[in-house]
Every structure is written in structure tokens, then in C-alpha cells.
Amino acid sequence: MRIAIGTTNPTKVSAVKEGFEGLEVSFHPCSVSSGVSAQPMSDQETIQGAINRARESRLQKNADIGIGLEGGVIETDYGLFLCNWGALVYHMEDSPILAGGARILLPEDFKEDLRKGRELGEIMDEFTKKNNVRTKEGAIGIFTNGYIDRTEMFTHVTRLLVGQYSYKN
Ligand SMILES: O=P(O)(O)OP(=O)(O)OP(=O)(O)OC[C@H]1O[C@@H](n2cnc3c(O)ncnc32)[C@H](O)[C@@H]1O
Ligand SMILES: [Mg+2]
């Protein structure tokens, strides 16, 4: 089976490869548009981004399955949460399979920067004085002190997608 991945971010690509471990598949990462803002600010928008990535990558790569992974943030009464969503699309099935990832609180003062239109990736680099946190441990890796990094979190999301696909087929 051909698996298209709607990103070239190495963290997400590794996560998808790990998520499909043990299955006979080939992987085809490609850069696609998420079709939503660069920094999604709700579950709704983040889910839509994941679905768009999955659909577009499947078409672009003429694959059996398309996987889309998207990161966002949501404002709640308890603070600003990091949110993560995944979508799996396949032929003969209109509605995508969805799965959510882990959520943790982000520093409150990130809100103002995000409202100004800055992306979390950029804010994280400034906050940590590192380069490309988003393609490495991610915000989740930084704020859990490496206990759970972005690859592990998205691997879990991918396993949830693959497991649901397996249940249905
Ligand atoms: O190349 P793509 O696939 O777009 O990968 P990305 O890192 O930009 O990831 P998303 O578009 O899914 O994430 C939306 C925004 O949130 C940022 N983001 C999300 N989760 C993050 C994390 O764990 N660490 C750092 N930045 C994160 C990311 O950099 C973007 O600015
Ligand atoms: Mg992005």
C-alpha cells in the first residue's frame, strides 16, 4: 500500500513511519497546503487542516491512504492549550478517520504573540533560543522536559488512525 504524508516536516514523517510499523507499506511525503491559517487557533480549524493535508497528499501521490497531521492552539478558561490532530483518508470512504493528540498548557504570555499573527514555531525558537524546535522535539518536548516529544505524540496519533482503519477494514 502507498501511504502519502501531507508534510515534509521530519518530525511528522518519522511519526507516520513509526505509526505504520509492522505493515507492508511505502511512504510518500509531499508538501501540501493545509488550506487553513498557518497557525490554527481552534480544534475545528486544526482538524480541517489535517483533513485537507490528508486529501491533497493522497491525490498528489496517487496513494491508497493519505495522512494529514496538524498542530494548533486553543484558548480555554484554563489557559492556552497546544492541540494536535490527525486525519486518514482512503478510497471508497468519504468521511475521514480522525484522531486527537495530547494537549498541554502553553505559557499564558504566548497568547499575545499568537494574536498578533505569529506562529507557535517562531515563538518557541525565540523562547528556547534554539532553531527549528518545530522540526525537532516540539513545544511538547520542551514543556515536558523531553518526556514526550513531537514525534512520539504524532506516532500515537498515527497509531490511533491506523488502528481505526484496521477496525473498519
Ligand atoms: O511543515 P508543516 O507540516 O506545516 O509543520 P509545522 O511544524 O509547521 O506544523 P503545523 O503546521 O502542523 O503547526 C502549526 C503551527 O504550530 C506550530 N507548532 C505546532 N506544534 C508545535 C510544536 O509542538 N512545537 C513548535 N511549534 C509547533 C508550527 O510551527 C506552526 O507554526
Ligand atoms: Mg505549518
From TrEMBL:
Biological process annotations from GO: nucleotide metabolic process
Cofactor: Mg(2+); Mn(2+)
Known EC number: 3.6.1.73
Pfam family, one: NTPase_I-T
Enzyme class (EC, first level): hydrolase
Catalyses which reaction(s): ITP + H2O = IDP + phosphate + H(+); XTP + H2O = XDP + phosphate + H(+)
Domain Non-canonical purine NTP phosphatase/PRRC1 stretches: 6-157
Single GO term (MF): nucleotide binding
Keywords, sorted A to Z: Hydrolase, Magnesium, Manganese, Metal-binding, Nucleotide metabolism, Nucleotide-binding
This protein's record includes keyword Zinc-finger: no
PANTHER family: NON-CANONICAL PURINE NTP PHOSPHATASE_PRRC1 DOMAIN-CONTAINING PROTEIN, PTHR34699
Protein name listed in UniProt: inosine/xanthosine triphosphatase
Organism listed in the record: Litchfieldia salsa
